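Comment thread on ticket #2218

A.B. wrote:
> Attaching the input chain for the structure job we discussed in standup.
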Amino acid sequence: MFINMASLRTIIRGGQVYLKRCYATGTKLIETTRDNDTGIDIISMSRTPVNSLNTELLVSLRTSLLEAKNSRSKGIILTSSLPTIFSAGVDIMELCTEDKNKLVTFWHALQSTWLTLYSLDIPTAAAINGSSPAGGCLLSMSTEYRVFVEGKHSIGLNETQLGLVAPKWFRDIYISLLGYRQAEIALLKGLLFKPEKALEIGLVDELAKDKTDAIEKCKNYILSFENIPQLGRGLSKLELRKDLIEWFNKNKEIDTEQFVNTLQLPKIQAGLKLYIEYLKQNQR
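C.D. wrote:
> Ran it. Output below, let me know if you need it in another format.
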């Protein structure tokens, strides 16, 4: 998979200089904007209509995360350019296939993107500006700090609603935020939480009135480390996350095999096809 840089230009907005980079595979999937005053990169997912996570978007996102890190970003804010959706999660069309190679390619893309985000030593935050189920929830949880925009949208790991099982690397982060008992019930029922409840249970750290407010609160979190030596901060973060990272690196292929074997089950494929038909009917 090749990711081409669509554009690289400096623009001036309101007296502040921003560096804008766009990565694309056919259409623009990710947009990164850097505020030179703070050195913070804002990475926005831009795959219409719902930022569903397919292979191309995941590869583009990982590329953008590494570009930000390698260009000495002071921190990363992950958000969405869509008005009411952060990410609808994994693209069901990527799962609705019995082609083993396609499933493996997709899962490796998700694994690599998650590991890159989760193991970044620089500060990361998520400005969650809309619905964020399943894979969308995973991405936001993998940052250090989450700000959720108020509204009717929800967040959570709802895999069981589709007859699927959230992998260990999804579950462990969920448990670390919610506590074991609360996460157990949420995972078994596939619960989704509105902003106020998500804040109450610790799934997010703050609420915001809109996306602009959410981004400002994320910036404030990142800037709170200005007087903390980056080396000590970064090493501390990696130590805190070391157990899951080490487990994942040792079990990546086993995890892939479990995913592929599950998705190839006739009952799972039949259920996914029914869900896709349901979505199509509701769009008419």
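A.B. wrote:
> Thanks. Noting for the ticket: DSSP finds eleven helices and ten strands in the chain.
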